[in-house]
Amino acid sequence: MTATLIDGLAIAKSLRLQAAERAQACVAKGRAAGLAVVLVGNNPASQVYVRNKIKACAEVGITSRLIEKPDTLSEIELLSIIDALNRDPEIDGILVQLPLPKQLDAHRVIEAIAADKDVDGFHVSNAGALMIGRPLFQPCTPYGVMKLLESINAPIWGAHAVICGASNIVGKPMAMMLLARGATVTVCNSKTQRLQEHTRRADILVAAVGRPHMISADMVKPGAIVIDIGINRLADGRLVGDVDFASVSHVASAITPVPGGVGPMTIAMLLINTLESAERRLHLLQP
Ligand code: GUN
User: Fold this and answer.
1) 35-47 pLDDT per residue, tens
2) FRET partner for 230 with CA separation of 20 to 30 A, picked from 135, 245, 254, 283?
3) Domains in the chain: ranges and CATH
4) Rounded to an integer, what distance in angstroms lies between the CA atom of residue 199 and that of residue 153?
């Protein structure tokens, strides 16, 4: 079997076109949607991610404000920046790029963001709302995965979904979203014994581990849908996922590539969340 390629770049592009129309509607209603991005320190990967987010905003007509601070920033200073953004009427979304330098407590920082501006969906009240099936903002990466599954009409109801990785920002919210759509969900973590016995039962296999080529063809049930969330830089500079694409693409029925799979969707969903927040504030949507 040779798998269908799930083209995240093309799907993200069509979402960005829709986002541009919604951004125009915000402008027509009074003002552009606004996203504040806070970057602390000089982590090179974070700098690239943030630059891409800012660029994507500009392309669809969302106003962005980049706040860059040195890695010596104190928690008090960061909390006061967030407080000002919470009260700023032109800001609909606030994103603090993670990871933060070690003197800053990421949990405390995220909890300081107003939940109705938390377009990352990381705030404890947004995580809780997702858990009880009443999401306000859904974390962008798993939200993007749900859009990819929809794009291929993947049968989710009654399917067995196996997620490798249990992080707060990807694995756990992914489990909640799939559960809400009627999947039977297994979440594996670094302590899971006989991982292959779990992954081979998956109709939908999601890899979010951060280990290059960890999922090999013998770990995949023939015909499974395989979603690769990993982005790993090899010593030779190549960017690869958690899935051994070359072999798994002969076993799976559908598969996301890296790059060009889940990555572009994460940014597209950030735009969608920011627009949804602006639409709520501008009364284009019911609260
Ligand atoms: N670091 C890695 N991924 C993300 C993300 O989606 N949002 C934020 N704020 N930081 C990240």
Assistant:
1) 999 999 999 999 9
2) 135
3) 29-124 (3.40.50.10860), 140-263 (3.40.50.720)
4) 21
